[in-house]
Amino acid sequence: MTDQWVALEPGADPAERVRVLRRAHETFTTVGTVPRPVRSVVAESWRRSARAGVGPDGTASVELSDGDLDAYRAEHPLARVMPLFRELMGAFAADGEHLLAVCDAHGRLLWVEGHPATRRRADRMNFVPGACWSESAVGTNAPGTAVAVGRPVQVFAAEHFIRRVQPWTCAAAPVHDPRTGRVLGAVDITGGDGLAHPHSLGFVQAVARAAESHLALLAPPGPHEALLLSALGRDEAELRLGGGPIRLSRRHSEILVLLSRHPEGLSGDELSCALYADESVTPVTLRAELVRLRRALGPGMLASRPYRLTAAVESDATVVERRLQAGALTAAAEGYAGPLLPGSQAPAIVRLRERLAGGLRTALIAHHDPDLLADWAHAPWGEDDLEVWRALAAVRPTGPVRARLAALEAELAAPAGRGVARGSGATYLQRPRA
Question: Residue 256's pLDDT is what?
């Protein structure tokens, strides 16, 4: 194979290739070695699948349904390019008896559309909206592997890790946020052996690039739309205005977060109590900060008596809160970039930060989703979160997870010098400061 990303070279016999792959798959699932000529991208995916505890006779599970799925899809960034996907791929899928599928960054299928008879066949293996097709859930498959490796992938027949998926062939390409580069999900075409042609790989890649270009060209918020304040996971918030982002100081970040949550405004006394733990801070100090903030925002943005913003400003923390309250847990977890203004000691910000982190964390533990728990556990704010690691070990008892849990529990049981710190309803290990 001259190109490891192409499943079947032109002129190759698909039937013979299937026979070779089935023997290789049987060898791997019985003795753990990958014989030639399995492509390296597939061999690496099989190994990741095995490490995640996926079995060759498993099946996908539906994790989002009905209202939860509708709410999640409505807020997902790829909803804005679904008309483009349908325009570019809909007729191809219907005419070729294929399926157009779109998944999120966790491999969850959001949309599955196409030929009715093909959809009915796909339903029998839970290739349906709301089902999780990540590598860690169902092993090697085009949409799940594309988001895992961050590049276009073809998966042909017995290259699929789960046997019931092996009659299918698929090609998928990740779609990135054009501003941040973050993987938003993947667009996939699924059907028969004909999709193993190199053209299908180039096709989904071109569609993904078109979607990224379309996202980049979408109009910024108009005068009556909310401006976005990014305050999660950063000590200095960023406000996106028509002229570009404004980087705020730490104190101005705190003020803007609070005012964005109180469109009716706050008095000077209310702001002072929310911002300062030290009651000796004079009103002059706060007024000086507000004068500087008004200068930073530009004319007309900050009014007084009471202090309030004249334009609607929505913080990313509020977006996560709203998703969590709506039960769209995956969307809430994806939007959570870290604790709210983590360096802030302002009393009101501390309360908001702990309430948001605690609520999301509690929901993750209760939901038992291995991918969401793993994302939290491997993030800087979750690496010492004992309860989350215990929850993760219960649903994904891999060697590395069990080892990390054992290390945390050993630290918890250690004598003086190390102990337990509690915050946001969580149990974290507190290491001594240098």
Answer: 93
CATH topology of domain 227-315: Arc Repressor Mutant, subunit A (1.10.10)
Structure tokens at 153: 């992938």
* pLDDT grade for 425, boundaries at 50, 70 and 90: very low
361: left (phi over 0), alpha (psi -120 to 50) or beta: alpha
Architecture of domain 14-217: 2-Layer Sandwich (3.30)
- pLDDT grade for 280, boundaries at 50, 70 and 90: confident
Query: Are the C-beta atoms of residues 35 and 21 closer than 8 Å to each other?
Result: no
What is the Cα–Cα distance from 49 to 145, expressed in whole angstroms?
10
Tell which residue, 268, 257, 267, has the closest CA to residue 234.
257
Both tokens of 88, joined, read 């570019």
Element spanning 293, H or E: helix 283-297
Return left, alpha or beta for 167; rule: phi > 0 is left, psi -120 to 50 is alpha, else beta: alpha
Global pTM reads 0.57
Burial 211-247 (b: 16+ CB within 10 A, else e): bbeebeeeeeeeeeeebbbbbbbbeebebbbeeeebe
Helices (H), 96-197: 116-123, 135-138, 142-149
Angle between helix 250-260 and helix 283-297 axes, rounded to 10 deg: 80
Contacts of 116 (CB under 8 A, 6+ apart): none
Indicate the pLDDT class of residue 416, thresholds 50, 70 and 90.
Answer: low
pLDDT digits (tens, 9 = 90+) for 14-41: 888 899 999 999 999 998 888 888 898 9
Please measure the distance between the N-terminal and C-terminal CA atoms of the chain and give it in whole angstroms: 54
Q: What is the mean pLDDT of the chain?
A: 86
- The domain spans of the chain are 14-217, 227-315, 316-430
User: What separation in angstroms does the CA of 426 have from each of 189, 384, 387, 388, 397?
Assistant: 42, 10, 7, 9, 21
Mean of pLDDT values over 359-382: 92
pLDDT at 317 over 70: yes
145 in Cβ contact with 201 (< 8 Å): no
Ramachandran bin of 53, using left for φ above 0, alpha for ψ from -120 to 50, beta for the remaining angles:
left
Query: Residue 283: how many CB atoms within 10 A of its CB?
Result: 11
**pLDDT at residue 432, rounded to an integer:** 36
What are the pLDDT digits (tens) for 221-257?
444 445 789 999 999 999 886 556 888 999 999 999 9
| Other Cβ atoms within 10 Å of 46 Cβ, number | 25
- Residue 236 CB-half CA count within 13 A: 5
